[in-house]
């Protein structure tokens, strides 16, 4: 059975897509069979992996029940990495969901994943910057959630709302849902603010931060221009610049997860 991990934070631009793409690539390169599902209408994971964002059939068609998930999955340049594309058409989904009753509506993605749950070691879901039906579906389908936290002022603002949503989903539709960890992103060593954000996370969520595979150093994603450039080449960081600090950090995250 695969482990399903949703990358979520309703705050925009905090590194969700960068994390989802590069974590799934790192897991695949470490020999695990991984599926990345793009469930964001912006389709950034789709284009960032070098795919078109206009596939005739995409995650939208899965969510409206017209296609099975297995029918939209694509192969990638990385041997063990598979991918389910998104499309801007997904913006209309919130309205269409209203035809279903609440519980059914929140479990559409989970039900779609159940068809292929035995086929992968990891399924990683990239969610949009909102707490609407799409993100609720992504959290309801997950075993755990990774919350990227951008190391900037206001980093923790809005976090209470996300944590409440997770608590509510745990209480109602998905009791096993766990917080896998908070992931500091875009960390700048010279910046006091960056260090303050990590210190705050350590203070409040000490046992929910990722440690490297030796269990010693904290996994922190540095601000790294190579990470920002790689999507424009349609490649995960390991294929774009394997020696960059961003690549090393996402591989550390993958090893941390593999080490359990
Ligand atoms: N560690 C990093 N170093 C430098 N640039 C980064 C880093 N992480 C992400 N970026 C860049 O910051 C921007 C936002 O990142 P990303 O798209 O991953 O965030 P997001 O949370 O998915 O955004 P959205 O909420 O819009 O979906 C992108 O241009 C991305 O390339
Ligand atoms: Mg994104």
Query: In which order are the strands of the major sheet placed?
Result: 3-4-2-5-1-6-7
Helix fraction, binned, reads 25-40%
What is the CATH topology? Answer: Rossmann fold
Instruction: List the secondary-structure elements in sequence, H or E.
Output: EHEHHEEHHHEHEHEHHHH
How many structural domains does the protein architecture include? 1
CATH superfamily: P-loop containing nucleotide triphosphate hydrolases
In percent, how much strand structure appears in the residues?
Answer: 5-15%
End-to-end gap: 16 Å
Mean pLDDT over all positions: 95
Based on CA inertia axes, which overall geometry fits? globular
The assigned structural class equals alpha/beta
Question: What does this protein structure show overall?
Answer:
The chain has 260 residues and is of the alpha/beta class. The protein has one domain (3-259): P-loop containing nucleotide triphosphate hydrolases (Rossmann fold), CATH 3.40.50. It has 12 helices and 7 strands. The chain has helices at 16-29, 44-48, 59-63, 93-97, 102-106, 108-114, 133-140, 159-172, 192-205, 225-229, 237-240, 245-259, and strands at residues 3-7, 34-38, 74-75, 81-84, 122-126, 144-150, 178-185. The protein has a 7-stranded mixed sheet, with helices on both faces. Helix 1 packs across helix 12. The radius of gyration is 17 Å and the shape is globular. The protein starts with a strand and ends with a helix. The relative contact order is 0.19. Magnesium ion is lined by residues 16-17, 40, 44, 126.
């Amino acid at each position: 059975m695969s482990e399903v991990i949703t990358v979520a934070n309703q705050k925009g631009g905090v590194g969700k897509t960068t994390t989802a793409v590069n974590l799934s690539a790192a897991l695949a390169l470490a020999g695990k069979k991984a599926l990345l599902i793009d469930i964001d209408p912006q389709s950034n994971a789709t284009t960032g992996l070098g795919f078109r964002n206009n596939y005739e059939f995409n995650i939208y068609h899965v969510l409206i029940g017209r296609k099975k998930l297995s029918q939209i999955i694509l192969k990638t340049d990385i041997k063990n990495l598979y991918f389910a594309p998104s499309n801007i058409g997904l913006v209309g989904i919130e309205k269409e969901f209203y035809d279903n009753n609440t519980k059914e509506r929140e479990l559409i993605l989970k039900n779609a994943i159940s068809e292929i749950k035995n086929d992968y070691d990891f399924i990683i879901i990239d969610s949009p910057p909102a707490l609407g039906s799409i993100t609720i579906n992504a959290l309801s389908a997950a075993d755990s959630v990774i919350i990227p936290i951008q190391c900037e002022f206001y980093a923790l603002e809005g976090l209470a709302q996300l944590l409440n949503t997770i608590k509510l989903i745990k209480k109602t539709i998905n009791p096993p849902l766990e917080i896998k960890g908070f992931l500091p992103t875009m960390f700048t060593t010279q910046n006091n603010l960056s260090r303050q954000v990590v210190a705050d996370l350590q203070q409040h969520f000490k046992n929910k931060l990722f440690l490297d595979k030796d269990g010693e150093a904290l996994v922190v994603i540095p601000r790294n221009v190579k990470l920002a450039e790689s999507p424009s080449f349609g490649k995960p960081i390991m294929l774009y610049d394997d020696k960059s600090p961003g690549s090393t950090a996402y591989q550390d995250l993958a090893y941390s997860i593999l080490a359990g």
